[in-house]
Design a protein that fits this description.
The protein is mainly beta and 337 residues long. The protein contains three helices and 17 strands. The strands form two sheets. Strands 1, 3, 4, 5, 6, 8, 13, 14, 15 and 17 form a ten-stranded mixed β-sheet that branches. α2 runs antiparallel to α3.
């Protein structure tokens, strides 16, 4: 005769987040306080913040659909509303060949030697080099051409036959700390150098690199599968403190749009590609003779450079015109601040 035991079923436990509503918030705070230049910790913090968002969304009414002209943008800012608050953005809506919003952006013009990298391009504000594309993107276009602006002028480097564009929010918007993000499709080709970056807003009083430079995204057209995130300051000027990541299986960042981001807190920056952290820089990791110069407002820049010390010159294989498409630029602050 078999002995049959009747086991009492275990009581069904409610999820931790239901029984202790503050648990997720406390875990998130603990993850932030752990600190350190540790990308794994940043990933854990993001997972906790994501869990918090899921819990909050489960108790909230469904959000209304995004009915902006042209349809919803990828990566809606509403998705980050629980942990982050949008404070500045440009979605680049508007007709083709129109300028971007001049209340938000101004144009850097001219060629070397003012850029300091032995670059070949001459920056203009012409629609052929910088304008909306009519599909919700900003297009920065490098062209192989000779234009009136450079006729009769001495070129610092190159044959004076490359034009491109560089935009800046200097004097219009600057901020210290938060989440700085852009969705971009980069071009590929020898000598191309697209970038999304920031400079210290005190640049008129404190010369570079003392004002600080934060490169959210740089890529080389000859290595379009790799993104670089770097800071430059006193004692780490040319080399910088650099992080990078490369797409698997030989994929290219030029094949589609990708999201480039830096999360910036006092004494620390963390870089992300498509929402995944790949590198960090902290004040505590600096060596003797190096100085942390990033705890003050910075303004934004977008540009498509051609040639220079790092990417090298373009050649016959370089495709012109080459376009860098920007879907959006968004800046967030932490909610509750």
């Amino acid at each position: 005769m078999r002995l049959r035991l009747r086991l009492r079923p275990r009581p069904r436990l409610r999820p931790l987040t239901r029984r202790f509503p503050g648990a997720v918030a406390m875990l998130a705070a603990a993850a932030v306080l752990i600190g350190g230049c540790d990308v794994a910790r940043d990933a854990a913090r993001d997972r906790i913040a994501g869990l918090r968002h899921v819990v909050a969304a489960a108790h909230a009414r469904p959000a209304a659909a995004d009915h902006k002209p042209g349809g919803p943008k990828a990566g809606s800012p509403k998705a980050k509303a629980d942990a982050w608050r949008l404070v500045w953005s440009d979605e680049f809506r508007g007709p083709a060949r129109h300028r971007p919003d001049q209340a938000k952006w101004s144009f850097d013009r001219g060629g070397e030697p003012q850029w300091g990298n032995h670059e070949w391009q001459y920056y203009t504000d012409r629609p052929g080099n910088v304008s909306l594309d009519g599909h919700g993107n900003l297009a920065l276009t490098a062209r192989h051409e000779r234009v009136h602006e450079v006729r009769g002028k001495k070129c610092g480097f190159g044959p004076c036959d490359i034009t491109s564009a560089r935009l800046t929010t200097k004097g219009r918007f600057a901020r210290a700390y938060g989440r700085f993000e852009a969705r971009i499709k980069i071009p590929k080709g020898q000598g191309l150098w697209p970038a999304f970056w920031m400079l210290g807003a005190n640049v008129d009083k404190v010369a570079w690199p003392g004002n600080g430079e934060i490169d959210v995204m740089e890529a080389l057209g000859r290595q379009p599968g790799t993104v670089h995130g770097t800071i430059h300051g006193p004692g780490y000027v040319a080399q910088g403190i650099e992080n990078h990541t490369t797409l698997a299986r030989g994929r290219s960042l030029a094949d589609g749009f990708h999201t480039y981001r830096v999360d910036w807190a006092p004494g620390k920056l963390t870089w992300y590609l498509d929402g995944k952290p790949y590198g960090a820089a902290c004040a505590g990791q600096l060596k003797h003779g190096q100085k942390w110069v990033f705890d003050h407002p910075h303004y934004l820049l977008l540009n498509l450079a051609v040639g220079g010390d790092w990417p090298g010159p373009p050649d016959r294989s370089t495709p012109f015109p080459a376009r860098m498409l920007v879907d959006y630029v968004r800046v967030y602050e932490r909610a509750g601040r």
